[in-house]
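Below is one record:
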Amino acid sequence: MSAAAGPVPPRHGKIVETGSYGHRAGPGRPVSIGRRGRMGWHTSSDLREHVANADAFLRERPVENTVLLTVATTLHERGRHSFGADEPLFGWCRSAGGAVVGAFLHTPPRGVVLSHMPPEAARALPGVLAGLGHRFGEVHGEAGLVGAFAAGQSEIAGAPREIRRERLYRLGELTPPTPGPPGAARRAGPADRSLLVPWYEAFAREIGDPDSVPAVAVDYRVSYGGLLLWEADGVVRSMAAVSRPVAGTSRIGPVYTPPEFRGRGYAGAVTAAASVATREAGARDVLLFADQANPTSNRLYQRLGFRPVADYLMVAFD
């Protein structure tokens, strides 16, 4: 990813000591955190600058930072407006010694995504965004860090509204369902587009997280063989998408089965097939998120061999 995006010298900038968590700064200007300026946030709308400064940090913990890594890869391959017409925003936080200790990205209309970072950096970030005049609706990240972010945002605006609690899982030893359902897995191709775009839309409606460009998402996944289908008797029953491997990790999702085909083992079968395909593509760690409000899917993934890593939270600021 770093080499493909092209070399860009890191821009450390000057850490401006503000003496508090209240910040006002223009785009690209560093903003300090804490009473003695121990850390500072830097922002940019340039993906290459983000990669040059934050990519190595994100790859140190690729499991916890999976979303930021895969989104950056998608932006690099599909273009800066992959997720919508508005400009993305990136940020990284440096310690007083210059080391990157946190990062975020925002690809409207999706929410802000937080990396692993010190809680005080997460709490300070809303002030940085307010200083830029940058608007956002949602935030997603490790539950404790989203809580810290929300505490900082509550000093500027209102309290957050919880949207969804998720659990990040990592695959251990794969245990495919036995006996499996009838049928077999296959990769999706262009001929499946008319089926899969409505499925993407239906999945987004079910979780309350609409994808602004489902057709683009389907086309992108199909382009690299990243959509697995379970087909029985000539009918596609379920799908599982997989991200390109990055930093030795790949993430499964969405996994979707239409209501009329549920409860027959298709989701487990296609998820197992996607897990095998992902490892064959070079991923060391196979990941997925599951909604904690859905005990059925959580039990299914654990039976397949997925083990909990961390809890994540998505909140909205209305």
Observations:
- Residues 2-159 form one domain.
- The CA atoms of residues 197 and 214 lie 6 Å apart.
- The longest strand covers residues 161-171.
